[in-house]
Amino acid sequence: MITMKEVYKRYPNGVVAANGIDIQIDQGEFVYVVGASGAGKSTFIKMMYREEKPTSGQIIVNGVDITKLKNSKVPLFRRNIGVVFQDFKLLPKLTVYENIAFALEVIEESPRVTKKKVMEVLELVNLKHKARMFPNELSGGEQQRVSIARSIVNSPLVVIADEPTGNLDPDTSWEIMRIFEEINARGTTVIMATHNKEIVNTKKHRVIAIENGLIVRDEQRGDYGYEN
Predict the structure, then answer these.
(1) CATH number, span 2-219
(2) Which tens digit of pLDDT belongs to each residue from 169-179?
């Protein structure tokens, strides 16, 4: 699904966020990405959906070398990638339904199919009853569930989540985790950068630890391994 070969990323200010990364993530895996703030986690996952380009190296996603992808082709590539952010990034003037439907409208899906898919993902995240509400009428946890629904409505091959429980209380974080596990059980690859030690240590999956732009640990059913 995702392969990185000798990937380096140096920012203009001299910071090296990726220092020769070699990694392979297979279809259907659930992967935690852990490490201290500033270790390179966000850069690592942003390079997977071409939000950041490496300085050098090769990144292959679903058979496509995205380092050679023309900028005009990036939106088409991202149709197979679902991204979930810590701060939700919902459109405030659109309802819950409209926020999710927007992801299908941009690819010119038919209204009938759009309605079917939106209602299916709203049921998965248990928000059908709030489809007509606006983001500012929802709790933080509900907004994050809408964000997740939006990320998966187009049935992506992989979902990439950057600190998806970072702004949420513990109970809500576990509910968000339940949704990610269900998405993964359906065959979608899930890659989740997180500082949530309890979740990583309780819900065991592959753990990739990054320090100073380097992968220092890669364990199946690993532990968080850091003090928060």
Answers:
(1) 3.40.50.300
(2) 899 999 999 99
